[in-house]
């Protein structure tokens, strides 16, 4: 179930962002926040998935509005955009975001999030060796599914 306080916090941040940008505060833009922040924290959604989900819930919204709103949400720090291999861009909410890395299955396309302190240790060592303060990183591991009868496998 979506955390209503979190959604309201995201809307307030977005409203302030739009005011500073001199951009319009339309109900459609705020409905994208409702939908994105109603997803489980570890869920990644593409524009088409958001569009279909919102249409099924009775929203009248265009794909272009969703694309534009997601760009604004990324710019405002309310969404994180990921590009995995041959997949379209996927988005996740950012207010509850804790840095994590991803494993993507080559067969079933399932995306799993993980964190490992050893990765941060490696990042720090690399930063020292290059005399650089590393501010962020992105690690995506791609593997082949070995799960018998995997429910996520898509037959081609």
From TrEMBL:
Q: Which UniProt keywords apply?
A: Cytoplasm, DNA-binding, Iron, Metal-binding, Repressor, Transcription, Transcription regulation, Zinc
Binding positions for Fe cation?
99, 101, 137
Any note on cofactor binding?
A: Binds 1 Mn(2+) or Fe(2+) ion per subunit.
- Give the record's GO CC terms: cytosol
Q: How does it assemble?
A: Homodimer.
- Please state which protein family the record places this protein in: Belongs to the Fur family.
Specify the protein name.
Ferric uptake regulation protein
């Amino acid at each position: 179930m979506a955390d209503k306080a979190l959604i309201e916090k995201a809307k307030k941040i977005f409203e302030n962002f739009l005011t500073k940008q001199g951009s319009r505060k339309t109900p459609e833009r705020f409905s994208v926040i409702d939908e994105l922040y109603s997803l489980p924290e570890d869920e990644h959604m593409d524009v088409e998935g958001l569009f279909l989900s919102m249409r099924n819930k009775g929203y009248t919204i265009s794909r272009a509005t969703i694309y534009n709103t997601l760009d604004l949400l990324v710019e405002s720090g309310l969404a994180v955009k990921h590009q995995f291999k041959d997949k379209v861009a996927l988005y996740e909410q950012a207010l509850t975001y804790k840095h994590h890395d991803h494993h993507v299955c080559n067969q079933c396309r399932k995306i799993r999030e993980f964190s490992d302190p050893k990765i941060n240790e490696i990042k720090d060592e690399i930063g020292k060796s290059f005399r650089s303060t590393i501010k962020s990183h992105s690690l995506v591991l791609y593997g082949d599914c070995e799960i018998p009868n995997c429910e996520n496998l898509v037959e081609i």
